[in-house]
Target: Flavin-dependent thymidylate synthase
Amino acid sequence: MGHAEAYLEIAVLDKGFVRLVEVMGSDASIVQAARVSYGPGTKTVREDAALIDYLMRHRHTSPFEMVEFKFHVKAPIFVVRQWFRHRTASVNEISGRYSVLKEEFYEPQAWRKQARRNKQGSEGKLSDEEASLLLKGVEREAYQAYQTLLEKGIAREMARMVLPLNLYTEFYWKQDLHNLFHFLALRLDPHAQWEIRQYAKAIAEIVKAHVPLAWQSFEEHVLKGAHLSRTELKALQGLLTPELYEKALKELGLSGSRLQEALEKIFTPGLPD
Model:
């Protein structure tokens, strides 16, 4: 098990953080696992990168599961509730039944307006001092009520009911690289809530540093790539010719089998209607 260098910690939001606890594996671990299936042969960084890229674009995911990251995260409860919808990780969160929760709340620097077209999203910025004062008042009153209940002998597991969702919590989160990439693909998306995107950016920075070859392929084929529907493919086929598309791909540096794969994505012989 590899220990994180100096326990790398990245500050997130006003009081939160993402801290790398440890990493098991590297790009070499992905290649090593793949060799079990595909046999030996890759010896150089360039060949390793080509193999990892092949695995990524053909969705051979199990070799990526050989790499694991463990993080210590501090985040507001409403962010964590979104986070824990990704159910493939091992998680251990601070217990509000066992511990007295700290008086730490997330306070946004700016408010956002409700999105007009997205019922679960927001847009723009809104400066509202009254809203900020209202939030602070709720925090103060809620935590005072929490302390009063504890002083009355009310159980911690019940007293915590009065605390709002912007209270900070902490948890350990262990995830394999394949599912971590899935998490990042969703939570780095512009449609994800701004607050959780900031955590995803911090995690992405750490992941990129530890598995640069895998990150490069993930960015190329998933994060900045796209999947097309049958209708979208038909539209492209109506606009392009194989020759024109091949010329454009070559100008972007594709060649050999990689070029052929790209052509077959759009112009697959015998593609059903």
Summary: The first helix runs from residue 27 to 38.
